[in-house]
Amino acid sequence: MHKPAAVLMICLASLPVAAQADGACKVANAGAGRSVYHSLRELPPQVRAELPGMADVGKPFQSTDVVSPDAPQFGRRMRAAWSVGSTYVIEYQYGGISAGDSRAVISLRNGGVAVCDPKWRPPKK
Asked: Residues 25-41: pLDDT tens digits?
């Protein structure tokens, strides 16, 4: 892992997880009791189901807006993930003309799934 990415992960891990205004996701402190995930395969199936079109850590992904027949099929790539209780934070890279980094915050509650981050918009399945 590159030093800037490691520093970013440490900084992000020390922040509280944002909660949705309607209370669908509880506020979780990403400090003590945190579980860290190094691959999409390690995440629960309900969380993975909310992340279609995402490449695993270190795998190729479509990093530009130029698509060729041999281009990777995924437009996003997981960088890191952690959970506190039933709330999962997935840091990822996305490609395109305005490529960058973002996160998805997903909470498992009462057998259902609540996506807490209002910026998260999974691609159409």
From this structure: 544 444 567 899 999 99
Distance CA 29, CA 48 (A): 22
Instruction: Please state the rounded mean pLDDT for residues 34-62.
Output: 91
CA distance 110 to 78: 26
**3-class state of residue 60 by DSSP:** coil
Task: Compute the distance between CA of residue 57 and CA of residue 73 in angstroms, rounded to an integer.
Answer: 15
- The pair of structure tokens assigned to 30 is 């990403």
In sequence order, the 6+-apart residues with CB closer than 8 A to the CB of 43 are 37, 51, 81, 88, 90
| Interatomic CA distance for residues 90 and 75, integer angstroms | 15
Give the ranges where 18-120 is alpha helix by DSSP (H): 45-48
